[in-house]
Amino acid sequence: MIGRPAPAIVILGNGSLATARRIQQRYPNAVIHGLAGRVEGADRDYQEFGTTLRELYQQDTPIIALCAAGIVIRTLAPLLLEKGAEPPVLAVAEDGSAVVPLLGGLGGVNVLAREIAAALDVAAAITTSGELRFGTCLLNPPSGYALGDLELGKRFVSDLLAGESVRIEGPAPWLDAAQLPEDRQARLAIHVGHAERQPSANELLIYPRNVVVAVTAGTADAIRAALREANIALQSLACLLSDEREMANPSLREAALELGVPLRFSARSGTVFELARSVAPSLLTSIDINDSMAIAVAAEPVDPLLIGRPRGRLAVIGLGPGAAELMVPAVKAELARANDVLGYETYVRMAGPFRADQVMHCTDNREEMQRARHAFELAAQGRSVVVVSSGDPGVFAMAAAVLEALHESSDANWHNVDLEILPGVSASLATAAQAGAPLGHDFCVMSLSDNLKPWAIIEKRLDLASQADLALAFYNPISRSRPWQLGRALEIVAQHRTADTPVVLGRDIGRPGQTLRVTTLGQLTPDQVDMRTMVLIGSSTTCVFPRAEGGEWVYTPRWYGDKPAG
Question: What tens digit of pLDDT does each residue of 289-308 get?
Fold first, then answer.
């Protein structure tokens, strides 16, 4: 079905994995989500079933849960606010012996259920009255068609179930195999067409999405008015099409979002009228509205994916410190929709696993500018591209390199890319949270690497930040090629801090094998630190006290001086 997202197959144990793989053979782009620690070999691990299921539901992802139906219902119950605005949700027995559609009757859940049941060689537990009687869900027309009015449609189906007959007006090939009580003289009618009609209780209006508006300027209201003037139903609008030179036009993007249709771009030069006439080989008519808008009506529903190309997208994301639960939902969603993923191989592997159709481009950690340029080249082709950083992409990571590559470029195709920076939990913040709140007041974040800046600048900033009594967070504190620089940095800080100043050492925080240690500036030596260690040095007000379960809490109070403010 065109436009339906790939489903998520969610399993709780290894006993479900074989069934999940059989379902995945039917949907090759589906991702198997396995509970961490209990499932080996899933495509993607998750930590908490309820959180994962609700996130998938809110992202409008079809869900195939291999567990008891009651678990799924109780988990999603808080989100079930409006019928008709829900993705398909199914429960499948672990051994594949039962397929139960639960939610998404208007989103094709019964179609999914029948497809999965056929793949598992069982019968789907369809309970919808209309589908059982007529063999189809009249309120869920196939991709390429849109239902006119849901509430009137419910009444229409009720009348059919009560024994009335129906006549079909217009091409509806998907109903040829349905068991409908047809009668050419029937009071009830299923009307299929793109013309705008006044809805009535005795008609089920279904609109083919066979209309494309070619536009170079205009608002959603202007497009609605043009369609109304041409007696074309808004529901038949399949997409907006514009000249590729208009890719960065914010008004077109806002119009497409408001109208709920894709925005596509063509390299074809000429007037909007010529652009409109190019959309489909089976064109019924084209209507010239003005110099910036024209309407094309095709003989059949059009697939927007076959018209022009989308605006390319480049997202620079932060994975956080490494733990899946510390990755923000927007980053997870971006990874799920990406065509291409670029980054240092270690970070790309952390971002996965990926679908078979997603392309990974792994490079050395020092090839930042080449990686950024490659990302723009891919996105300029209309692809959805993700550049991966650990932590936050704007903190000693790829966001600056990507923006620098764009700043240096005069290529209009690069500047037309939809660029977004998505934040992540930086290593300094993750380490601070583990320790308590050592960065609870003003603090300074510095990299001790002199690969991209002179050591003299680092020394100057260290001295000034220490004089200012800022808490300090050191990234890249030491390496084999820089064995002496951390020692020198500590000497500078010690000129302005006492030996008992608290220091937090966090190694691989958020990853397997993480360690956290609290020491003091006087006790800290460079051999206690490596490149994967975050070093947090407190200010003169930073405090340490025992934790009940062992270890210590470290915090820097928000007041300064002898007493708290306020």
Answer: 899 999 999 999 999 999 99
Answer for the pair 477, 504: CB distance below 8 angstroms, yes or no.
no
Q: What is the pLDDT of residues 186-202, one digit of tens each?
A: 999 999 999 999 888 89
Determine the 3-state secondary structure of 219 from DSSP: coil
Specify the DSSP element, H or E, that contains 66: strand 63-66
Structural class in CATH, domain 313-425: alpha beta
Concatenating the DSSP letter of every residue in 430-482 gives HHHHHHEETTSS-EEEEE---SSS-HHHHHHHHHHHHHTT-EEEEES--BTTB
Per mean pLDDT, which range of 171-175, 228-232, 350-354 is the poorest? 350-354
State the span(s) of the chain assigned CATH 3.40.1010.10.
Answer: 313-425
Q: Which fold has domain 8-127?
A: Rossmann fold (3.40.50)
pLDDT (0 to 100) of residue 562: 58
Which residues of the chain does CATH 3.40.50.11220 include? Answer: 8-127
CA triple 358-353-509, angle to 5 deg: 130
**Phi-psi map region of 395: left, alpha, beta (phi>0 left; psi -120 to 50 alpha):** beta
Tokens encoding 548: 């009940």
Q: Which residue has the higher pLDDT, 103 or 80?
A: 103
The residue type at 116: I
Q: Which CATH architecture best describes the domain 211-306?
A: 2-Layer Sandwich (3.30)
With CA atoms as reference, report the closest residue to 509 among 415, 391, 338.
391
Q: CB–CB of 419/402 below 8 Å?
A: yes
May I ask the CATH class of domain 428-555? Answer: alpha beta
Question: In sequence order, which ranges of 207-314 are alpha helices (DSSP H)?
Answer: 220-229, 250-259, 272-277
Question: Measured in Å, how far apart are the chain's first and last C-alpha atoms?
Answer: 61
Q: Are 509 and 475 in contact (CB under 8 A)?
A: no
**pLDDT above 90 (res 275):** no
E-strand ranges in 6-93 read: 8-11, 31-35, 44-46, 63-66, 89-92
**Measured distance CA(443)–CA(165) in Å, rounded:** 75
pLDDT at 48 over 80: yes
Q: Is the dihedral of CA 33, 35, 41, 45 positive or negative?
A: positive
Which pairing describes strands 211-215 and 237-243: parallel, antiparallel, or unpaired? parallel
Q: Which tens digit of pLDDT belongs to each residue from 143-202?
A: 899 999 888 888 888 888 888 999 999 999 989 888 899 999 999 999 999 999 988 889
Residues of the chain with CATH 3.30.420.180: 211-306
- Are residues 64 and 30 in contact, defined by beta-carbon separation less than 8 angstroms? yes
Backbone angles phi, psi at 439, to 5 degrees: -105, 30
Stretch(es) of the chain classified as CATH 3.30.950.10: 428-555
The confidence score (pLDDT) of residue 205 equals 95
